[in-house]
Amino acid sequence: MYRTMTPLQLALKYMDIVFSNGDMMQLKGILAQDLVFNGPFHQSNTAKDYIDSMVEAPPEDFEYKLIQSFETASSACLIYEFIKPGVSTTMAQVFEIKNDKIIEIQLIFDTAAFQ
Question: Cross-referenced InterPro entries, in alphabetical order (predicted)?
Answer without folding.
Answer: NTF2-like_dom_sf
